[in-house]
Structures are given as structure tokens and as C-alpha cells.
Amino acid sequence: MCPDIPMFSLTQTQVPSVIVWVDDSGVAHARDTKTGNIIAEGSDHASVMQAAINAIDKGEVAVRGNVVLTSPVKMKSWVKVKFEEAVIPVDTYGFVFDGVQGAGLEGGRIKVTASSYTKAPILLTGAECKLNRIRDIVIELPVGQGYGIHIVAGANQWVYINKFEYIFISRGLEGVRVELSGDGWCDINEFTHIYIDVPSRYGFAVYNNGLDY
Asked: Which of 43, 117, 155, 190 has its CA at 20 to 30 Å from residue 123's CA atom?
């Protein structure tokens, strides 16, 4: 049973820079709210979302309805993405923070339906991946497969000062997986109200150069 986690509502006072929505035929559209121009559209929802994120240097992308991600969506520094529901039907990462700073991911449900899953809906990695905020998200994984949140810091990579708030992770192999190798490090990350329900192995795991804690 999921706890009562506050979810994102598109009834908000702040006007997003870009709105992404999916029509009845399954085609996604991204529209600039200031100009009214269509930035991108197509049946590949991840590509349309990526174009929306890439189109702004700072601001918010609001995603309406249910999107299907068959490839990763790469987050961008100082851009926030608010979404309602995302489905991952293949073995791919969902939202990737790679060397990103000051980005946000907020509100919604991520459901993995892949028959075999070895990755995570949310990945943080890269050099100077910091000051990002991820909150108000429900992650549903297949039984015994994948990780809810995956943090990877290899050689010359630093993943730190990120905030994770009000996140519910159900099933999966591990709820939160942190992997450090070489001289990579992960410090001052803040986890608040993280609910991890029946993982097959660990709720929260740290692997330092192959050793698990």
C-alpha cells in the first residue's frame, strides 16, 4: 500500500516554459508557452521530452498525462521537469542526471513494465553532479529486478549535495543503489521521507570498489 505522498498537480501558479502532452493517437507534442510554437512532436515520447528540455536554458517543462520512455531522458542543468506518469517498457534508464547541476524532477509515478530490468528509472552520475532535487515520486519496479535510484561515481566523478524527498519505491532488487569506484565519491546527499517496500535484496546499498555495505 503506497503511503500518502504529495503528488504534483498541473494546477499550479507558475507557468512552465514548455508543455509536453500526448494526444489520443499516442503522438507527443512539445509547445513553447511564450511563443505558442511547437518545438517537437512524434511517437517517440522520450525524444520529444528531450527536445523540450534542450530548448530552454532555465525553467520548467511540464509533462501532461502518460508518457512511454523507450530511451533515457537526459536532464539539463537548471531545468526542472514535472510529470504525471511515465512507463518504462524496456531495459533502459528513465531520467538521467549526468554531470547536471541545479536540475529538478518532481511529481508523478514511474512504472517499469520491462520483462527483464537491470537499470533504474533515475540515475545520477558524472563529474560535478550536484544541487539537484528529486521529489514526490512513486517508482514501481518488477519483482526482484532493477533499482529505484542509482547513484554512480567512478573515476573523477562527484555526485553530491543532491536532495531526494518523498519518494516511494516498491519491489525491485534494491531501492537505492550507490556505486563508488576508483576515486569517485558521493557526499552530503540528503534523503528525506524515502519509503522502500519489499526489495528482494537491499533497501539501501552502498558498493565501494566492489564491496557492499
From this structure: 43
The residue type at 45? H
Grid coordinates given for 82: 514535472
Q: What is the pLDDT of residue 127?
A: 94
> Residue 26's closest CA among 10, 8, 41, 5?
41
φ, ψ (nearest 5 deg) of residue 54:
-70, -20
- Evaluate whether 40 touches 21 at the Cβ level (below 8 Å): no
Rounded to 5 degrees, φ, ψ at 53 are: -65, -45
Average pLDDT over every residue of 39-52: 98
What does pTM read for this prediction?
Answer: 0.92
Q: Which residues pair with 22 in a beta bridge?
A: 28
How far apart, in Å, do the first and last CA atoms of the chain sit? 28
Closest CA to 82 of 121, 109, 102: 109
b or e along 94-131 (b: 16 or more beta carbons within 10 Å of the residue's beta carbon)?
A: bbbbbbbeebbbbbbbbbbebeebebbbbbbbbeebbb
Place of cell 537548471: 78
| Closest to 68 (Cα-Cα) out of 51, 90, 37, 50 | 90
